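Structure (tokenized):
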């Protein structure tokens, strides 16, 4: 795979073939700079609430993450959101947390989600119940993110459940994991990345990356270990609403590291919200220039409507427009669909 957009000639050898009908997987393997975004789940059973939240990203993101009880708070489930959106053609990343289900339920959810058209899965251990709105709930944690990756890779590649029972038609999914380069011990983080790759991770969506020098060091070490040829890296970015919000995040959200220089820049701005968006734009542009970065994952909590402006001004998509319902299929998608009968499920969604 050649990242011809960035003039990057690195080749991804271990992920050369498609493992799913995912539009995100095809975008990454074609060498395009991918954009994903977190989709806030509604506290509602109305499907229109999901569609309305997705439409704000039309034409600007390649895939949307449906969170799974993020922060240990109860919302509409990730599998339901992904199924609703897949039905009308959107590409989604179903987040799966190990906190609330055991291996029997998790395997059943993955097989069922694939049957409903979900092509990407992000494996997470999940936050503890004590941080959410149901602290009396009983946590499960039968598996963690590492073992969940191994289990789902087994479902797909060995075509069998953990019990050894065969699956007649396995879930064809593109497997992802999270990683945080900013949690000590910092020297250990690339080795943790390596373990997750060995467990089955094909792409990574990272925690917010506000400290670019530290992230660049993580990427350089990962490159030295030969890891960047085995996976796709999408660092996390997001607009900060104010200096006060940034201060709260770095003291209350685990793993979020925001340098003093970013806080001071916000404090000195006349319009802090707009300055936060400008910082986000600049970070996307700078992250794009780091060797091995394949895209960005945008987490714009309560600022989802600003994502289009941020992506537009960053210029990272260049002339490309990600697919959305009502748009025409990309030329390479037409070619893929004609060439690969296994993508026939996509044919209806792309037309």
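Design, position by position:
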């Amino acid at each position: 795979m050649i990242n011809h957009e960035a003039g990057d000639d690195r080749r991804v050898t271990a992920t050369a073939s498609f493992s799913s009908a995912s539009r995100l997987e095809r975008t990454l393997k074609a060498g395009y700079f991918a954009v994903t975004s977190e989709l806030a789940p509604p506290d509602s059973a109305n499907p229109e609430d999901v569609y309305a939240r997705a439409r704000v990203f039309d034409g600007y993101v390649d895939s949307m993450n449906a969170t799974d009880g993020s922060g240990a708070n109860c919302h509409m489930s990730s599998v339901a959101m992904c199924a609703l959106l897949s039905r009308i053609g959107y590409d989604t990343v179903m987040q799966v947390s190990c906190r609330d289900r055991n291996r029997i339920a998790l395997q059943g959810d993955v097989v069922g989600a694939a049957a409903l058209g979900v092509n990407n899965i992000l494996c997470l251990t999940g936050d503890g119940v004590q941080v959410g709105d149901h602290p009396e709930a009983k946590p499960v944690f039968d598996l963690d993110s590492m073992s969940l990756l191994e289990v789902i890779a087994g479902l797909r590649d060995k075509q069998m459940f953990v019990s050894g029972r065969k699956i007649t038609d396995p879930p064809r999914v593109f497997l992802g994991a999270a990683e945080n380069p900013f949690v000590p011990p910092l020297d250990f983080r690339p080795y943790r990345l390596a373990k997750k790759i060995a467990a089955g991770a094909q792409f990574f969506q990272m925690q917010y990356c506000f400290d670019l020098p530290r992230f660049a060091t993580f990427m350089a070490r990962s490159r030295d270990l030969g890891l960047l040829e085995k996976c796709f890296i999408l660092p996390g970015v997001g607009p900060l609403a104010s200096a006060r919000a940034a201060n709260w995040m770095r003291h209350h959200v685990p793993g979020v590291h925001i340098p003093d220089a970013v806080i001071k820049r916000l404090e000195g701005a006349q319009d802090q919200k707009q300055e936060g968006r400008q910082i986000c734009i600049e970070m996307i542009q700078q992250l794009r220039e780091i060797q091995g970065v394949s895209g960005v994952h945008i987490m714009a909590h309560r600022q989802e409507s600003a994502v289009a402006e941020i992506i537009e001004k960053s210029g990272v998509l260049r002339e490309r427009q990600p697919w959305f319902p009502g748009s025409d299929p990309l030329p390479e998608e037409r070619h893929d669909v004609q060439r690969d009968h296994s993508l026939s499920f996509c044919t209806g969604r792309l037309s």
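Reviewer-requested clarification: The two ends are 27 Å apart (CA to CA). The longest strand covers residues 34-39.
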